[in-house]
Design goal:
- By secondary structure, the chain is mainly alpha-helical.
- Among the domains are: 192 residues, P-loop containing nucleotide triphosphate hydrolases (Rossmann fold, 3-Layer(aba) Sandwich); 59 residues; 71 residues; 48 residues, Winged helix-like DNA-binding domain superfamily/Winged helix DNA-binding domain (Arc Repressor Mutant, subunit A, Orthogonal Bundle), CATH 1.10.10.
- Helices cover 62% and strands 4% of the residues.
- It contains 44 helices and 7 strands.
- The strands form 2 sheets. It has a 5-stranded parallel beta sheet, sandwiched between helices.
- Helix 5 links the parallel strand 3 and strand 4.
- Helix 11 packs across helix 14, helix 19 packs parallel to helix 21 and helix 40 runs antiparallel to helix 41.
- The longest helix is centred in the middle third of the chain and has 21 residues.
Length: 930
């Protein structure tokens, strides 16, 4: 560990202070594995489980494999099955070695994403049960997306006794992004250490070489030459020094057969091996990844030679009875030294051996076919590998396989066009998009695609940019360009026009979208393509529903959900997911649930991950609207964490998190979430959510007393609503905008907005819009001091919201009614205030509840809050819990007082009680209450 004393100490200390997350990064050969092993060696005397997992360069579609590999040997540390968290039973099918120690498997869930989230929870619970533990995952740069998602989940909420260590090469990442995702934040109660390993300087090279040669007097000129030749990479230094002759002079590095290049150093080490051992080493090099003794033998090795290579330290034993090189550089060095004809023959033998397996590893078969020069087999296995990965939901691997084939200059031109089109088709239903966009753009620049194929590839690029990428402007530009190239392919042109016709995107008015939809339907009528006909019908049904058309349900009834073709049913799945989203916005919640059930079933059947994810996030919004707030914040945050590559498609999640934060007085957090929901670039985001986020932002400005900012936000959002012309989208905007405009002195504009809104939603199937109209009329009347009218309108709004149901909106309308009654001197105002206060409290809208309680106190009515239970002096009361939450967010006493409508002195008293009950001395030690 020459030159790594500080890093070793930091890593070992972090392992002993769980929960901890340690990221060890550096280039190949820099010493990441050796540092990890040295740190783990310091733990041998401690009662701590050490769990090791490895990611491999040639991976098959087996999500979470490295973590399952690490967990297989924990049986001896587990408590009895009756003591384990029941959720760990979900791991029975994945960890057969632990089946006897795990609880019974729970019933399967219909929702694949819920099933995945349960498995994540099960893994976390299992790690908690074996703690204290170190979970080390090596070579994370080769991890599948599922493993990365799982590790992000674990780092977000690590078990108390877990120290997690990952090693990775930053230069080997497919894209320049944090491996644990942008959503990852250093948790305040978790030690987070980043250890970037740099090459050794000259003194480090001297120390390492001296330790290897057992000399402390190496000539400075020799050290300088060694540092220059090896660039200070420890592995290369070691391999070169081990192959040196006895003389340590500068000229010795030049005279030696392998002065620098690792393949020559490895050749020198292999020179002392028998022919059988050399054959085993070469077979292992051809296989590229650790392999069984049998496979190495079938490729050309020898069992006796394998043992010799292991004893010589050229090969090493890996977990699971597999053998390979200590480092990928060593494998590459040996591989490069094999002659071309010998390599080709070995790859042919590898193909035969792997192809004879019960479940042939298709990725490895494609690799060996390519290097054996068998182009037909390469295309066949590579295409099959991509299809298998896509079918298992590992779209990232499918894209990776096709990307590698397309970037290979040896791929025949005739094979490129089908692969490029297959790549685009895979991408439009998956979640991964960054590599797809880069490759499709490269393919289009190359110019080898014929016109029709070029148009299809460009169309897929535009769809991916618009949907998964969230770049509407760039996506629409590509779709428009594709339409010009698809004049001879009416079916694909119809798909393009139908995509542009969706009114939720772009700045065009509704009339333009109608024109585009008519073009799509005219084109699809001339084409014999059930899949495209289904796609256009899906968009027509989505179009009608999103604008609140009474014809929407009749169109939806024609969707081909039972069609025998998977691609056709996939379009129906997409339609049902869109219909769920639109019905949720309209306030048609029973219908939305039915659409969700059909969409989820079809998405699971057809592997449509992108629509399924959209269904999940729009379900979060439906839960917020219908008052299902229990655990909603955590569910929404978990969904957001799973969208690290495509954060812009999770706008429903950010909207809901913003609205929840608004209801609890977390104003800075609410503003940030509303920006992420679409206000950061409103012309490029999904318009219905942008308008809802604008309504939330207007309310936020009003709550903070920033009337001018509220008016400005309202005017911008209303202008966007008018330009689009789909008035049913204003249900969460219009009441707030009318309030801001009317109280800001823009009474005429507020009245005009109410009138326009009433005309715009007339004849539409949109009960949420109808309730919002009554709320807007109530707000306009209240601002004009027409209190009797205001009370009547708010009462009708409350009843309409209750019927939907939208309990939070109903409570807001009830509060408006109570204030109008109070202004009239109505004796029922007290009861009218009590009801929304109680409803807000039940939902968890603490800021709103506090506002109503303040109104009651102002008229002489005290509303006591539940206190902590007697005999439990350390249990926080409801008020203390509210204060503790805001303290944990870093709010000052003055800010807390503003949120909870209390005096600063009262807040000071509550803060002192919170600190005492929690047993902490400082506000900074207060954690958010569960």
């Amino acid at each position: 560990m020459v030159g790594r004393a500080g890093e070793l100490r930091a890593l070992a200390d972090a392992m002993c202070r769980p929960p901890a997350v340690v990221l060890v990064e550096g280039e190949a050969g820099i010493g990441k594995t050796r540092l990890l092993r040295a740190a783990l060696a310091r733990l041998t005397a401690q009662d701590r489980a050490v769990l090791l997992g490895h990611c491999h360069q040639l991976r098959e579609p087996f999500p979470y494999g490295p973590v399952f590999e690490a967990l297989r040997d924990v049986a001896g540390r587990l408590p009895g099955a009756g003591e384990l968290n029941p959720v760990t039973g979900a791991l029975r099918g994945h960890l057969p070695e632990l089946a006897g120690a795990l609880p019974p498997a729970p019933q399967p869930l219909d929702d694949p994403r819920a099933e995945r989230h349960r498995m994540f929870r099960a893994i976390r619970a299992l790690l908690a049960a074996v703690g204290p533990a170190v979970l080390a995952i090596e070579d994370l740069h080769w991890a599948d997306d599922g493993t990365l998602d799982l590790l992000r989940f674990l780092t977000g909420q690590p078990p108390a006794g877990l120290a997690m260590v990952v090693t990775y090469r930053r230069e080997d990442q497919a894209v320049a992004r944090p491996l644990l995702g942008r959503a990852y934040r250093h948790q305040p109660d978790t030690s987070t250490v980043v250890l970037p390993l740099a090459p050794l300087d000259a003194s480090g090279v001297a120390g390492l070489a001296g330790a290897l040669l057992e000399r402390s007097d190496l000539p400075p000129a020799f050290v300088a030459r060694l540092h220059e030749r090896t660039a200070g990479i420890p592995f290369v230094v070691e391999e070169v020094v081990r192959s040196l002759p006895g003389v340590q002079e500068p000229d010795a590095l030049d005279r030696m057969k392998a002065p620098l290049l690792l393949r020559e150093a490895m050749a020198d080490r292999m020179a002392g091996l028998s022919a059988a051992a050399v054959a085993a080493v070469r077979a292992a090099a051809v296989l590229c990844r650790p392999a069984t003794e049998r496979l190495i033998t079938e490729v050309g090795g020898d069992p006796a030679g394998l043992g010799e290579a292991l004893r010589a330290g050229v090969l090493h034993e890996h977990p699971g009875g597999r053998y390979g090189f200590r480092h990928a550089l060593a494998q590459q060095a040996v591989y490069d030294a094999i002659s071309g004809p010998e390599r080709r023959s070995a790859h042919e033998r590898a193909m035969a051996a792997l192809g004879a397996m019960d479940s042939p590893p298709l990725v490895q078969l494609a690799f060996h076919a390519r290097h054996a020069g068998d182009t037909g087999a390469w295309l066949r296995h590579g295409t099959a590998a991509a299809e298998q990965a896509a079918a298992l939901g590992d779209t990232a691997l499918a894209v990776e396989v096709i990307e590698g084939m397309l970037e290979d200059p040896g791929l025949p031109g005739a094979g490129r066009a089908p692969l490029a089109l297959r790549l685009g088709r895979l991408a439009v239903t998956g979640l991964s998009h960054q590599r797809v966009v880069r490759l499709l753009r490269h393919v289009l620049r190359e110019g080898f695609l014929p016109d029709g194929a070029r148009g299809e590839a460009r169309l897929n690029l535009g769809v991916v940019l618009s949907n998964q990428g969230g770049d509407t402007a760039a996506g629409r530009s590509e779709i428009m360009a594709a339409l010009a190239e698809l004049t001879g392919r009416p079916a694909l042109a119809a798909r393009g026009w139908a995509g542009l016709a969706m009114p939720g995107w772009g700045t065009e008015p509704l009339a333009r979208h109608r024109e585009w939809m008519a073009r799509a339907e005219a084109l699809v009528a001339t084409a014999d393509s059930p899949e495209v006909a289904a796609a256009v019908l899906a968009n027509r049904a989505s179009f009608e529903m999103i604008i609140g058309s009474p014809d929407a349900f009749a169109v939806a009834a024609r969707l081909p959900a039972g069609h025998p073709c998977t691609e056709v049913r996939r379009e129906a799945a997409r339609a049902y997911c869109n219909l769920h989203d639109s019905a949720t916005s309209l306030g048609l919640y029973r219908e939305a649930e039915r659409f969700a059930e059909r969409g989820r079933r079809l998405a699971a059947e057809t592997g449509a991950r992108y629509p399924a994810y959209l269904l999940d996030v729009s379900t979060v919004r439906r839960d917020w609207l219908t008052g299902r707030w229990a655990g909603l914040r955590a569910r929404a945050a978990a969904l957001g964490e799973l969208a690290t590559e495509t954060p812009l498609i999770a706008v429903d999640v950010w909207l809901v998190l913003g609205l929840l934060a608004m209801a609890t007085g977390e104003w800075d957090e609410a503003a940030a979430h509303f920006q992420a929901a679409g206000l950061d670039a409103p012309d490029d985001r999904y318009v219905p959510i942008v308008l809802a986020a604008a309504g939330g932002m207007v309310d936020l400005h009003l709550a903070r007393g920033a009337l001018d900012a509220a008016v400005a936000e309202a005017e911008r959002a209303v202008a966007r609503l008018r330009r689009k012309g789909v008035w049913v989208w204003g249900a969460q905007l219009v009441p707030a905008a009318v309030t801001a405009l009317a109280w800001g002195g823009r009474t005429a504009a507020a009245a005009e907005l109410v009138d326009d809104y009433a005309r715009g939603i007339a004849g539409r199937t949109a009960p949420a819009a109808g309730a919002a109209l009554e709320a807007a009329r109530g707000a306009l009347a209240a601002a004009g001091r027409r209190h009797a009218d205001a009370a009547a309108h708010f009462a009708r709004a409350r009843a309409a919201y209750d019927a939907l149901p939208q309990p939070y909106a109903a409570a807001r309308a009830g509060e408006g009614e109570a204030r109008a009654r109070l202004a009239l001197g109505d004796g029922g105002a007290v009861r009218a205030f009590r009801e929304p206060a109680e409803r807000f409290a039940e939902l968890g809208a603490t800021h709103d509840a506090a506002r109503c309680r303040r109104a009651l106190r102002d008229i002489g009515v005290e509303v006591p809050l539940p206190r902590g239970r007697r005999g439990e002096p350390h249990v926080l009361s409801r008020r203390e819990t509210e204060v503790a939450r805001l303290v944990a967010l870093g709010r000052t006493n003055r800010e807390i007082a503003d949120v909870l409508f209390l005096s600063t002195r009262t807040v000071e008293s509550h803060v002192a009680t919170v600190l005492r009950k929690l047993g902490v001395r400082s506000r900074t030690q207060v954690a958010p209450p569960a």
